[in-house]
Amino acid sequence: MELLRSHLSRVRIPEPTNRIYKTECCISFDTPRSEGGLYVDLSSFIAFGKEGVGWNYEKSGNPVYLHIQQRPKPVPEDRPLKKPTLLAIGVDGGFDHEETEYEETYSIVMLPDYMSLPFPSVELPEKVRLAVNAILIAEGAKCNEQLASWTAEKKKVSAYAMNLQQINTGVVVPPYGWKCCKCDKSDNLWLNLTDGMILCGRRNWDGSGGNNHATEHYEETRYPLAVKLGTITADLEGADVFSYPEDVTVEDPLLAEHLEFFGIDFSSLQKTEMTTTEKELDQNMNFDWNRIQESGQQVEPLFGPGYTGLVNLGNSCYMASIMQVVFTTRAFISRYYEHQSLKMAFLMAPSDPTVDLNAQLTKLAHGLLSGKYSFPVQEKQEGIPLHMFKTIIAANHREFSSMRQQDALEFFLYFLDQVERGNAGKPELDPSRSFKFIIEERLQCPSGKVAYNKRSDYILSLTIPLHKATNGEQLEAFDKLKAEKKLEGKDIARGEIVRPRVPLEACLDCFSAPEEVHDFYSSALNAKTTAIKTAGLSTFPDYLVLHMQKFVLEEGWVPKKLDVYIDVPDVIDITHMRSKGLQPGEELLPETGPCEVEPTHFVASEDIVSKLAAMGFNYVHCQKAAINTANAGVEEAMTWLLSHMNDSDIDDPISQNPHTMELQSVDEASVETLISFGFQEGVAKKALKASGGDIEKATDWIFNHPEASSSVDTELTSSGVQADDPAVPDGSGRYKLMALVSHIGTSTQCGHYVAHVYKDGRWVIFNDNKVGASIDPPKDMGYLYFFSRIDG
User: Fold this and answer.
1) Where is the UBA domain (predicted)?
2) Which residues are catalytic?
């Protein structure tokens, strides 16, 4: 006790603003449940495992620690397994919701001799007791996060429910024997709560479901609410009520009265139909879900070094799938595992290693590759969590730091950009460069003169030419079958569905194919014209990542996922895609001319200005909004206007020339994000101005306005980027498929991601914390394909 009293000056009582770590080691994945437990530094409030606590004592000299140990309580072997009823992971009613109970014990430990004192104890100094109690009652740096990977939100009360007008048409709904009023459908039926019409629901993407008669009825009448027949029971909270104007499942507090209006005694009804949420759950267990996750297969669980799963933190599968693939590459293994120990990373880190990217990447590498945390627990592994890694990697990114699902591609690019920044000035250590390559674009205008532009990228994004499908006859037969089934009012069976099969080679050909660029300003002709653009690769990366553009935006910014298979061979050769640069006899377009000025000046669209002015906005303000969004549209101009209403210069005259004005600056962080995607700085700025600063819309704007890139291309020559830059690898154009990341769901902002990796001579599935020997890897269903170069 006297020794402890002599160290009281090194003990601090945590304040509310202090970050407290008590559930996970800062440099390993040890927890209170690990052998040896966890040690919380009573000065810094950072936690360490049994090995790390000694390093911390050497580095900081802090001698007093709270030792937390958790041991499992006995679990009855006959505990029944529950069928999931909620589309979620880690929540009550969801998948794998089995929590082991633990008994927690505490003690005070003093280094270097690991002298231990029991806690609680009245004999301990008051300062120690106050410090420990404050730590134990604190919420901790790792807050209680919402663990739901893809759960539906709680239903909201419909704005139309309380004042719903019901029409007495004499309709009395019987308790059974329902049928659509416009076809022969007897399932998936909806009762309109205004006029009592019974109509079939929406048609699904695969041809199943209804014939859209309920939706068409709403479009004709605007009667807002409908309840799904077959979901009504004495428990009205389980009934499925849909609001068409709100386009979401809602709660109707007056549902009992609304049903009684049509003579429905809900207390006597039995449930016969699935609700929308249940149907969504069922669809997520259908073919795609089962195929990608290999559900129903006797997948052999794998354990040991390189076979460690990652805990789903709630919509973190996009991050987990990417990190599993990244840490199978030689570059990342060498940088953060083989050539950097945990102790080295800890000693190099600042006083708080939780905010050091190098330390957290080393921690993750050792966690995944050492095998220390990959062992069976009730015939499966628990996996390791990405809490600290996610906190540091997403610290400055609003979306990745949230609990929402994200695009795995966007995260991959952002991650590599952060790694590159973390290794700035040390290109020889930077593992992200193993993915980097140079794309060269060639533009030729009718004058015969050319322009070359080079840019670096980490991924090759490929459009999918559906017209190149190899199973055209089967698709025609399927379309014919769908038409026949529709006339008969029948659904397409899952076994009858036929999807286009497109060869990967056709997607690669699309990338290299000549493309017309309209309204291209030629400095040789001093006029706008149509140019021909082709693209190739100046360098071939160590690891080639192919992004399949399965997600497209339809009219109105509505995302749609292409339902298609991609036939991907195990080995590809893209040698023919290597660009050749400026050829003998070719003449570059002049670097000077009106093109240098024209792209940065815009004339306000009178159509946009007049529409905004009609809404009551100041006319000059409307002009500025149109100009600063490059006349992208009324919506973009209004977004800009609303965010700049309080600008000090909003009332200043536009310029001496009332028709032109140079575009204002944009957020540099957004510019850097677009540059990390591989776009030029000038194009990135122009796109952000045209889209009101929205990165997603700016990206789409670039793809839809190739002339923007072209105007910048004329200012560049083949000397813009050095192809022999030592930071960019180069080699053979032959590659072998090493991994793929697949996506289940209707958009990148929802659903689930799974990784398949070829290692140790077999395919392995990484599905969050589940790791197993893959039996049937879904090579034709990938979203991202990773290839490793075949040397020699």
Assistant:
1) 603-644, 665-705
2) 317, 752
